[in-house]
Amino acid sequence: ESGSDEVVKSIRKGHTVKTAIAVGKKLNEARLPFNAIVMYGIAGEGNSEENAKKTAEMLNQFSASKIITMNLTVFASTELAKMEQEGMFVQAGIKEKISEVRILLENLDVNKRTEFDTTHATNIIKLLGTLPDEKEILLEKIKNSTMKKLKDDKK
């Protein structure tokens, strides 16, 4: 879900970023296709830019067939919901989350055809395209979506 060891530890994934990279590389060596699923918003308010950059840095070290993003959804009765209620976790706002997707995409440097997919039902913004060829088109769609959300917020 993240390329940040701090975030991975906080959500108790049971592995490190280094381990995730090693597994991705082994899958590449074995020529086994796989998807990489990342969660934006999981780092909390004010931490999206760093999380996006670290996640892109991780993803750039192996070749996933597809990079799928999912928006953080905090479910009631979970430890994260409890942390939020106690003020130990503050969710990023919509603009920050969209910015995180943009920064992730800007920092991805894939050299193999990779699908970039933000069409999961939880996502704030729905994008589907192929990297590296459609990277600029996807970034333009994010920019347009951000402008629309800013206008909608003023209404």
Structural description of this entry:
The protein has 155 residues and is α/β, with parallel strands linked by helices. It has six helices and four strands, in the order ααβαβααββα. It has helices at 5-10, 17-29, 48-59, 79-85, 94-107, 135-154; strands at 35-40, 66-71, 114-117, 128-131. Strands 1-2-3-4 form a four-stranded mixed beta sheet. Helix 3 links the parallel strand 1 (35-40) and strand 2. Helix 3 (48-59) packs parallel to helix 5 (94-107) and helix 5 (94-107) runs antiparallel to helix 6. The chain is globular. The mean pLDDT is 93.
Which structural class matches the secondary elements? alpha/beta
- Shape, principal axes of CA atoms: globular
Strand order of the main beta sheet, please?
A: 1-2-3-4
Total helix count? 6
Q: Average the pLDDT over all residues and give the rounded result.
A: 93
Distance between the termini: 34 Å
- How many β strands by DSSP? 4
Helical content class = 40-55%
Runs in which pLDDT lies below 50 for 5 or more consecutive residues are none
Q: Into which percentage range does the β-strand content fall?
A: 5-15%
Alpha carbon gyration radius: 16 Å
Biggest sheet features: 4 strands, mixed
N to C succession of SSEs: HHEHEHHEEH
